[in-house]
Write a structure and sequence with these properties.
The complex is a heterodimer of chains A (about 270) and B (about 110).
Chain A: H1 2-20, H2 32-49, H3 54-62, H4 64-85, E1 94-98, E2 104-107, E3 120-123, H5 132-154, H6 163-180, H7 183-189, H8 192-215, H9 237-265
Antiparallel strand pairs in A: 1-2, 1-3
Chain B: H1 2-25, H2 29-55, H3 61-95
Helix pairs in contact in B: 1-2, 2-3
Classes of the chains: A mainly alpha (about 270), B mainly alpha (about 110).
């Protein structure tokens, strides 16, 4: 099985290397990018898409396919981390802390569990006492980080930003929660099933918008065909389509970040770590 | 007005310079965190004050809003930078890193 995997990896790598042979050379004056493509984007993008931010226009409209598969790659990275690392077996040893006295209990029997509540609390093996300063500051900062992430996602077609960046900022706010409290807090707040569904939902939103465009009689991801579905100025329909796509990207990236972090840090057990 | 802006910017640059020299010249991990955490925070405060005053040259509501947004940067740096320094020092203590002393270690 391992050997088979190795062969598949080698074959894919060889295929990718073979594919790069078809690329034009660096700075080739006859390549499409140098002759007419860049000029077309710079001169016509606002006219054609009504989006002030050229980068977003190229990313989400002219190269919508590329970005769609990038989102799929992010989703696959999260999925691969889950499949390779997730370990459903319960850990045998557990540590509990008696809250009023601070006595630490080491339970070696895997069947015995103590009720966690007012009297006992879970404890990691390499436990670090929670720090009031860090906890308080992170509790103040996390909502602001998340609002800023939503702003970056929503404002992607007017100013620098977009789904990938906003998703990463949102995901980092979740990681900050895990660092400042502990991993159990994050896992309790963000259910594993929910983030799995969200990662798939993000890709689904992207592809779904493309399919809706197709069902309205256009090409895949041809946002101008969405105009009858959305009220408002039909000239801005491409910007709105891009916004929908960016939201999908943001959801997928956020969920993938959370999945990758939780699985790597806890070696797939989702109980303790960093 | 311009004098005030220049004064603030120079003050900020002075503190940044002090912080940069401190990071290079200080003898060990903990004392290096001291300029990194403190001087940069004050430097950012002075720089942003200067920039936001410069931004108010043509006074309008938008310019005022922009200056207020700049001060949000200062607010968040004021919150996060000392906390980050605190947690780095905490991690260093926990990892068992000894602090620097003037006494020369034997051997």
């Amino acid at each position: 099985m391992r050997f088979l995997g190795f062969i598949i990896v080698c074959l894919t790598g060889a295929l990718l290397l073979y594919g790069t042979g078809e690329f034009p050379d660096w700075g080739d004056p006859d390549s499409p990018a140098s002759t007419h493509l860049s000029n077309h984007y710079i001169e016509k993008a606002i006219e054609e898409t009504q989006v002030p931010n050229l980068v977003t226009a190229v990313l989400a409209d002219y190269r919508g396919f590329d970005t769609m598969f990038e989102t799929a790659v992010v989703f696959c990275a999260g999925l691969a981390c889950f499949l390779l690392l997730r370990d459903f077996s319960q850990k045998k040893e557990r540590f509990y802390r008696h809250t009023p006295t601070g006595v630490i209990l080491h339970v070696k029997d895997s069947k015995k569990t103590l009720k966690v509540g007012k009297e006992f609390e879970h404890m990691d093996k390499d436990w670090v006492p929670s720090d009031l300063i860090i906890k308080t500051v992170c509790r103040i900062l996390i909502p602001f980080i998340q609002i800023y992430a939503l702003y970056v996602v929503a404002h992607g077609d007017f100013s620098p930003g977009g789904g990938f960046q906003g998703g990463v900022i949102f995901g980092s706010s979740l990681i900050l929660l895990a660092i400042s409290y502990d991993l159990k807090t994050l896992v309790r707040r963000v259910n594993e099933k929910v983030i799995g569904i969200f990662a798939a939902l993000g890709v689904l939103i992207y592809v779904g918008i493309g399919v809706i465009c197709m069902s309205m009689g256009g090409n895949f991801l041809d946002y101008s065909k969405l105009a009858p579905l959305v009220p408002g100025d039909p000239h801005h329909i491409r910007a709105l389509g891009m916004l929908g796509v960016e939201i999908g990207v943001g959801i997928a990236v956020t969920a993938a970040m959370a999945i990758i972090y939780i699985n790597i840090v806890s070696e797939g057990r989702h109980d303790e770590g960093l | 007005m311009d004098i005030l802006v220049i004064l603030f910017l120079v003050t900020g640059l002075f503190f940044f310079l002090g912080g940069a020299i401190g990071i290079i010249r200080m003898p060990d991990f903990y004392s290096r965190l001291h300029p990194a955490g403190k001087l940069d925070t004050l430097g950012i405060f002075a720089m942003v004050t200067g920039l936001s005053i410069y931004n108010l040259h043509h006074f309008s509501f938008e310019a005022l809003l922009l200056s207020a947004k700049m001060f949000l940067i200062v607010f968040f740096v004021f919150l996060s930078s000392p906390t980050a320094t605190h947690s780095i020092v905490d991690a260093g203590m926990r990892a068992g890193l000894r602090h620097w002393t003037k006494k020369k270690r034997k051997g």
